[in-house]
Amino acid sequence: MSEDIKKIMFTVRNAPHGTIYVYEGLEVKLIMAAYDADISVVFMDDGVYALKQGQNTDELGIKGFEKTYGVFVDYEIENVYVDRKSMEDRGMTVDDLLVIGEDEDTEEPIKPKVIDSSEIAAMMAEQHNIMSF
Amino acid sequence: MLHTVNKSPFQNNTLESCQKFITSGDIILLIEDGVYGAMAGSAKSAIVEGAIKSGTEVYALSSDLKARAITNLIDGVQITDYAGFVDFVEKHKTHSWL
After folding, report:
1. What is the pLDDT of chain B when averaged over all its residues?
2. Is the pLDDT of residue B45 over 60?
3. Residue A20 backbone zone (phi > 0: left; psi -120 to 50: alpha; other: beta)
4. Which residues of A make CB contacts under 8 Å with B?
5. Within chain B, what is the greatest distance between any pair of CA atoms?
6. Is the complex ipTM more than 0.95?
7. What share of chain B is helix, strand, coil (3-state, %, to 5)?
8. Which of A60, A83, B64, B67 could join B35 via S-S bond, C-beta 3.0 to 4.6 A?
9. Which residues contact B55 (CB under 8 A, 6 or more apart)?
10. Model pLDDT for residues B52-76, shown as the tens digit of each residue
11. CATH of the domain at B68
12. Does residue A127 carry a pLDDT above 60?
């Protein structure tokens, strides 16, 4: 059975709010999470800006997505990664990153995992599909 | 001249180009994804730092900063709102760098 489960990676490479990419990508992720797929999400390039905590889009008159990102783990989207170089180039650290859920047992907040591009490349090589937003 | 920049400096070279064509008395207003250019400590901070050092007034739109949770601004970057944006447009010719 497990051989039938597809490995699908989403990459987020655009900054939030300026375009619709990050919003549309989130919709697709939530839809795909309803299927029996092995999903991973990688934030790289300007996509790491989407993970900055404390975004308030009230004055732009748009909903924002920080709250939805905050329940990724509840949607069983647990494999969420950040490209270290992209994050550091943008003057960000792990402390800047928003929370994607909490540990079921310990209730500790869970943050995206910061990894190197070589690790991302290795994961990419294992995927059935990669979708870029 | 009022120059508005709405793209992240990592996405393309709009901010860099704009900065090259600034003349005395010009203002740069960062809006939408352009406000990422105003963040301190990034690999692209030098562009706005250079503009400020050479005497150009650089503003960032507050609503766009809030939406992107940008709080650590480069020294010298000023914040304005939509009303301020309108005032600039009234007083200056506008060049929208898209």
Report:
1. 97
2. yes
3. alpha
4. 14-19, 45-46, 49, 52-60, 62, 64, 89-91
5. 34
6. no
7. 40, 20, 40
8. B64
9. B24
10. 999 999 999 999 999 999 999 999 9
11. 3.40.1260.10
12. yes
